[in-house]
TrEMBL record:
The keyword Ribosomal protein does not apply. Keywords: DNA-binding. This is MmcQ/YjbR family DNA-binding protein. It comes from the Bacteria.
Length: 126
């Protein structure tokens, strides 16, 4: 299965953005790519090898962002009970998938929910 180029470009932009946030690190638990801050995941990036559809999973506390994300094609509350805590899985391969800029905004929101205050202050200081 090949990954659509535009979906891969978005995925790469989102990954690069996430890892550029203060204190962010990349790890590969369960063979997936995740970005963590303070040892806690703030975005699940899944796999980019084409074995699964490309997507990102973020935690959206803001009700309007959360509601908007769930209206997108292929978006759904995250599995393993994470959906109840505000996590949303967003497909990058569906027609009508969000632009990289919006995805980066959501990654930042997810980061702000999880990051310690000192790193958020560092982010705001830039």
């Amino acid at each position: 299965m090949t990954v659509p180029k535009n979906a891969l470009k978005k995925w790469e932009k989102v990954r690069e953005y996430a890892l550029g946030l203060p204190g962010a690190t990349e790890e590969h638990p369960w063979g997936e790519t995740v970005a963590k801050v303070n040892k806690k995941v703030f975005v699940f990036l899944g796999v980019d090898d084409g074995s699964y559809p490309l997507g990102v999973t973020v935690k959206l506390k803001d009700e309007s962002a959360h509601a908007h994300a769930l209206t997108l094609p292929g978006a759904e509350p995250a599995g393993y009970g994470l959906g109840k805590a505000g996590w949303v899985s967003i497909s990058l391969e569906e027609k009508g998938a969000p632009a990289a800029e919006l995805l980066c905004d959501w990654v930042e929101e997810s980061y702000r929910v999880i990051a310690p205050k000192r790193l958020i202050a560092e982010l705001d200081g830039h």
